[in-house]
Amino acid sequence: MEKQQPERLKSLDALRGFDMFWIMGAEEIFVLLGSLTGLPALQWWANQMTHVEWHGFHAYDMIFPLFLFIAGVSFPFSAKKRLSIDGGRKSLYRHVFKRGLLLVLIGVIYNNGLNFDVVNMRYASVLGRIGLAWMFAALLFMNTKNAKIRLLWLSGILISYWLLFVFFKAPDLGDPDHYSMRGNISSYIDRILLPGRFCCYEIGDNEGLLPTVAAIGTALLGMLTGEFLMTKLKPTKKVLYLATAAALLMIVGQVWNLVFPINKNLWSSSFVCWVGGLSMLLLAIFYLVIDVWKFQKWAFFFVVIGMNPITIYLANRIIGWDSANRFFFGGLAGLLPEAWAPFIMAIGYVTIGWVFLYILYKKKVFLKV
């Protein structure tokens, strides 16, 4: 008798696509809308489409941790499917290690291209952090008995990470602030251990070594959420519990922010709680609308993106969309007032990327790592 496979959550694909939508060029659309219209709401959102330099939070800072959270949510579903098909934990272990390390390798190639200047290459990356954090979180998830023990691990990771900053600071640059750009222990560890060049900061990398430990907490939180969604509770109760847990996490994040500032570059424990709560709330909303209420047609746009997230991430780096954008949308942009031309070109950029993904979707071509 064939074993029943776990149902794929359409809301998860849609939320993943919604997340990737903002780095396909959509942020530029809203930045331009804010400046062109002068509407306060659009100007506020345009301001949210930038990263905070150090302490603080903008919506654009959600993209990276939300993707990692979603990768965590997917793991209990994919693990159950893989175990039922391949029939063994050894196969699952191979998959976890292969995926984690392959993402690290792809991240290095993404940063440097096919470059062999090993001294000056950048080794830290978004994909590398996703790969390592997801891999270690998956290993924790597989080797703990229940959700209570996993919650203890999550709490232990976040508290221990905070205490590292409480008790240690960078000894080399003379800044006494344990949480400043120059005084934090994370950047110091990058300076002494991370080879190659850094991104954004000469004194450390914004995807450096130590914050990857805290990022394990983000992935593990996603796995706990995925495990909860697999329970036999009524879907409406799942939504209620997720929304409640999200609110509690956000409160904890803001309270923790008083002593350990919300900071994406440090991936501070308060940041993990704050964005974890926001991620859980977004998932609860998408799950309610798409999987419970079955309002699904509107989400197709995002599902197309969400089924091929690594593809569009790499394509935006490798493929020169600008020539195609000028070919298809340059004439239309030229018909409009000069101030609106960049807006049309920004829409064109997103449209071309989406059509590319739609063709892959129709051909059932999905890049999976």
Mind sketching the topology for me?
Layout: H1 10-37, H2 40-48, H3 63-86, H4 89-112, H5 126-142, H6 147-167, H7 185-193, E1 200-201, E2 204-205, H8 211-229, H9 235-256, H10 269-292, H11 300-306, H12 309-318, H13 321-335, H14 341-362
Antiparallel strand pairs: 1-2
Helix pairs in contact: 1-2, 1-3, 1-10, 1-11, 1-12, 1-14, 3-5, 3-8, 3-10, 4-5, 5-8, 6-8, 8-10, 9-10, 13-14
Question: What does the model show?
Answer:
- The protein has 369 residues and is mainly α.
- The chain contains 14 helices and 2 strands.
- A two-stranded antiparallel ribbon has the order 1-2.
- Strand 1 and strand 2 (204-205) form a beta hairpin.
- Helix 6 packs antiparallel against helix 8.
- The radius of gyration is 21 Å and the shape is globular.
